[in-house]
Structure formats: C-alpha cells, structure tokens
Design a protein that fits this description.
single chain, 384 residues, mainly alpha, globular
Length: 384
C-alpha cells in the first residue's frame, strides 16, 4: 500500500475525531456559551446534516479539480473552521463552523476514497478503503476519549485546537505526497456520471450501507446507558467499553480489507448474518457483563468489517462515476448514522428500555439481509 494512503488516513482520523468528540463536550459548550444542553446538542445534528448533504454536492464541486487540489481545499477549510470555532464566543458562529466543517469533511472523504482507489491496483479497492476507514475507527478508540480528556482539563476549546493542529501535518502530507497531475482534472460529462449512479447494483449497495451503518450507530449511541443500566457496571467502565468497540472496529476494518476485493460475497453474507445474530445475542445477554463486553468487541469488528466492504463495493459498482459514487457512499453511511440513533431513541422513549436499541440494530441488519436476498436474483438475471 502506498505511504500516501497512511497520510490520507491521518486526515480522516482528525476529521473523525471532530465528528464524534462533541458527545463529551456538549455540557461545557452549553455552559460557556449560555445555551441549553439540547441547543448545544444541535451541533452534532448540524454536522450530520452537513455530511449527508455535503458529500454528493462537494464531490460534484471538486470533480473538475485535481485530486490533490480538492483534498487541500477541503482540508484547509476544515482546519480554518476549527480555529474559528475555538476562538468564537457566539453559538451561532460555532454552529456555522460545524456545518461548514461537515461540508469540508464530506468533500474530503468523497475525494479521498477515489484517490485511494486510484493509488492501488484495480482489484485492491477494498484494502485501500479499509486503510482510510481505519482513521475513523482509530478516532473512536483514541481521538474521541482524548478530546473528552482535553475538554475536562483545559476546556472544550482545547479539543478544537487539537483537531486543528492535527490537521496541519495532514495538509503538508497531502501537498507533498498525493499525486495531483493533470490526468484527473478532465472528468467526463456530469450527465454521464449521474447516469452511472442509476445502476441498480450501486443503489442496492448504498441502501445496504445505510442500513448496516444505522444499526452500528443505533447501539453505539446508547452503549453507555446499556453498560451502566442493564449490565450494571460502574460509570467508570464507559470509556473503556467505547474504546473496546473502537478496537474491534479497527480490527474488523483491517481484516475485511484483506478479503473485500477477492471475496466480497462471503464477507457480506457470512459477516452480515453473524452481525445480525450478534446484535440479537447482545440484546438478550446485555445483563451479563462478561459476555456483553466480549460481544461489544465482536460487534464492533463485524459492523465496520461489513460496512467498509460495502463502501468498496460502491466504488466497484460505479466505475464511470468514481468521485460521485464516493460522495453518495459517504452520504448513505451518514444517513444511517443519523437514522439509527433516532430509531433507537424512539424505541427507548416508548418505554422498551435500553435493550430495545440493540433489537433495532438487529432489525436493521435483518432488513439489509432481506434486501440483498431480493436483489441478488435480479443481478443474476441481468448478468445472464
């Protein structure tokens, strides 16, 4: 794998940390800026909406730039808005920086996916994708807890400064190491790329990605109360449990990358079935701390292993529109990241308890498996 891929992963790590770190900073932000906690929580929603809307829009905007130029533009914008966020005393300005930062993050990830795929052999997109998404999983393991710790020690602004500083070497690395010649500055007509996005295989893959990622973040969002209220563990276990899920995620992405190119079918079929069963077992056994902790690790690995394979398959499914396919894949996965926690919260709010979020995860993966089962015969017929 090219060294430049590791450098792209560094940038993705910084951006993933920014996306998830607010979960531990919202109370301090609300107190410092004089707003309610629910109002401060809108910062997370604003970032999610920016990712969903921004991924295809920013991918379309950057398709006529060189890939290095697009990556630098998005990354410098991301860095600048974090500096602005760290300096401002206005909640409105901070909210605007989160939206702009999400747009830049979405554009960067969409272009980074196709850039990574272009750095490797045509049949190695899965490994390249797994290296990029490794930055997201490392953000869950190390970046988010570190951001929360910085917030506790030096205030929430220090976490924003840390993300900005972490982005500086990524800017230098992209400028020096990512190819940016004229070969990628003259894409085909936009109409042709949009036509490629109508491929049934791509649409099914994007739907599956949204469902699987929805399941992942449905349970991940409510993992803390599941551990304390259902498993009965002390609150001090929560950071470790979140890191355990992140460690499993990193292992799953790394392992899936070895098989996602050569045998994606078995990875998705076997991994998807195991993922669905695992959520069901976790829902039933969440009251037993030992088995529950083991399942948190396993489910993290399966969730991101299957999810990263689906992203790679989205790139394979639209060779005529690689950048836009990466943008729509990013959007689909963020739709899942927004939809899953909402569904889980609805189930919990209806009085079904914290286990219900895990059952929702199982149901979302079951829906993905059913969708794939229905779509597969159609693909075989089309192939004939």
């Amino acid at each position: 794998m090219p060294f430049a891929l590791l450098l792209l992963g560094l940038a993705v790590f910084a951006q993933g940390t920014s996306e998830f770190m607010l979960s531990g900073l919202v109370p301090d932000i609300a107190r410092d800026l004089g707003v309610s906690v629910p109002a401060a929580g809108a910062l997370t929603s604003a970032f999610a909406v920016g990712m969903v809307v921004g991924a295809p829009l920013m991918a379309g905007l950057g398709r006529r730039w060189s890939r290095r130029g697009a990556l630098l533009a998005f990354l410098v914008t991301f860095l600048a808005v974090h500096v602005a966020g760290a300096l401002t005393d206005s909640f409105g300005v901070l909210l605007a920086t989160r939206v702009i930062g999400a747009l830049a993050n979405a554009g960067f990830l969409a272009v980074a996916l196709v850039t990574a795929a272009g750095m490797v052999a045509p049949d190695a997109k899965g490994r390249a994708t797994s290296m990029l998404l490794g930055g997201v999983t490392l953000a869950c393991v190390a970046g988010v807890p570190a951001g929360a710790l910085l917030g506790q020690l030096w205030g929430w602004r220090s976490a924003f400064w840390a993300v900005a500083l972490l982005s500086v070497p990524a800017v230098v690395a992209v400028a020096r190491s990512v190819p940016g010649g004229a070969a990628d500055t003259a894409p085909g007509p936009l109409r042709g790329e949009l036509r490629s996005l109508r491929a049934r295989r791509l649409q099914v893959t994007l739907l599956l990605g949204a469902l699987v990622n929805g399941a992942t973040f449905c349970t991940f969002t409510y993992l803390a109360p599941l551990v304390t209220e259902v498993a009965g563990l002390d609150g001090r276990w929560v950071p470790g449990v979140l890191a355990l899920f992140g460690a499993g995620s990193f292992a799953g992405v790394s392992l899936a990358g070895r098989f996602a190119d050569r045998r994606p079918g078995p990875v998705l079929a076997v991994g998807g079935a195991a993922l669905c069963a695992g959520w069901g077992v976790l829902a039933l056994g969440a009251g037993e701390p030992g088995p529950a902790l083991g399942l948190v690790l396993v489910q993290g690995a399966l969730s991101f292993g299957v999810g990263s394979t689906l992203i790679a398959q989205a790139l394979y499914a639209a060779p005529g529109a690689p950048t836009l396919a990466g943008g729509f894949a990013t959007a689909a996965f963020n739709v899942g990241a927004a939809l899953g926690p909402w569904l889980g919260g609805t189930a919990i709010g209806a009085g079904f308890g914290y286990r219900s979020a895990v059952w929702v995860s199982a149901g979302l993966v079951a829906a993905a498996l059913a969708t794939a089962a229905v779509a597969l015969p159609s693909r075989r017929t089309a192939a004939r």
